[in-house]
Amino acid sequence: NQGAGTDNKNEMAVMSRMALNTNKAGMEGLDKDRINQIILEASKGSRFYENEQKKELETDQRVATMKQQLDLITEKDKQKAVKVMDALAQQLEVARDLSRTIVHLDMDAFYAAVEMRDNPSLKDKPMAVGCMSMLCTSNYLARRFGVRAAMPGFIAKKLCPDLILIPTNFDKYREASKQVREILKEYDPNFCPMSLDEAYFDLTEHLVKRKSLTDKQRTFYNPYHCAKIECKIKDELKGMNCRDVNSKGVERLDDERNIEEEDNSKCVTFGFTDEDAVNEIRFRIQAKTQLTASAGIAPNTMLAKVCSDKNKPNGQYKIQPTREAVMDFVRTLPIRKVGGIGKVTEKMLKSLNIETCRDMFVHRGILHLLFSEISSHHFLQTSLGLGSTRVERSSERKSISVERTFRELSTPSDLYLKLNELCQSLSKDLKEEEMMGKTVSIKLKNDKFQVKTRSSSVPHAIDSLEAIYASASELLRLEIMACHPDPLKLRLMGVRMSSL
DNA sequence: GCGGATCAC
DNA sequence: TATGGTGATCCGC
Length: 500
What we know:
Blueprint: H1 9-18, H2 32-43, H3 47-72, H4 75-94, E1 102-107, H5 110-118, E2 127-130, E3 135-138, H6 140-143, H7 153-159, E4 164-166, H8 170-187, E5 192-195, E6 198-202, H9 204-210, E7 219-221, H10 227-239, H11 242-258, E8 267-269, H12 274-289, E9 293-298, H13 301-310, E10 316-318, H14 323-331, H15 343-350, H16 357-362, H17 364-370, H18 373-383, E11 399-409, H19 412-432, E12 437-446, E13 451-462, H20 465-483, E14 490-498
Parallel strand pairs: 2-4, 9-10
Antiparallel strand pairs: 1-6, 1-9, 2-3, 5-6, 7-8, 11-14, 12-13, 12-14
The structure holds a DNA duplex.
């Protein structure tokens, strides 16, 4: 159903893993089949592709097993299960909390936007941040070609031969991120960053305080703001193909920028509502960093996250805090948009004719019978548009790790040397964090992309290179022995410390 | 406690 | 030529 553009069964089988994910923003109206054809062509025959095919067959097997279980379920079982879920839904409904104003803020094409800001000649060209083996992100022009985050650069180049690749500059992204976080802190000191480019915060308390702010305190200056132009550019990105936007859109931007405007027009006084406050935050972010952000406003984090994607880039979307508005939103919400539902879960649910969050409620009985309690409860919550109404900093970390991909290694001395380097790095990180741990794990990825982890625990917490390497190298020794006399061919090794 | 798998970013 | 790194969680032993 992803549109492979091919008749071969094996190729079809792997499509849901390999194919372009068109669920994300900036993907409307692409030549999906052509793009997938190119991705497939470039991947076919590689060890990576072979492994993806294998994994796909495994999920197909999971689906088949699940359907067998479904066949054994009687109508009576289902009725009973629906009752259990309805009782739970009743409890959840009583506890429904629509009183919080939760915001999810997401920077637009963050790393690419930083690079374009610092090198404006990139602004009218398709570009991506990363290297030939892997991309971190791409700008919106590149997305028109199907070039996306987590795609290898050499495939992106086939989709878009003019694509410009920029290596990562994490120091710059960290600095921009810090500037954004300083603003967010003013609205919620307990805001919760999820990564450099994304954060949740709770606007509820600010909105109370906001009522007594003066006009001056709600007035900000943004030299980069021009609503009219941005609106046009956005429309054209959505409607036209890449070349047209390239030549027309950007030219027009320059023309209009040349028109002298009163400084006042870039001074805006924001109102008192939640939407006003979020507009203000995005306006201030742009003023400070020259970067745009998108945001979602909703009564809980699950919905806010989905909403921040809705009007991307440089937009925001609010779900009104009423049960009707929430249920209406969830009625058509595709399950894949919901956090925690990935490719595999999507495929399993689709095989049960579940495509939207409402479908999850319709099929709540079988979900209860086919999935674990944790999963089915989570599905039920999602189907009711429920999620966390508090944003909190993630608790103590539970593990710390390092892993590296390298050109294939197989001689034991090379492998032990590489392992030692990783242990050195891990030991250093542990000491910097002032942590020690009792469980050492190694991760191995062989030349066929198969991943294996092995771990062992020691009685006392350790952090030294010597102690970590002693555990890790013994684990590696066992794996080399298990293969013997064949060589252990690896393309990645990792070391992790847990039970901290 | 272990190992595989899934997921987010 | 070439498909990442870090951390969390869940499930089934």
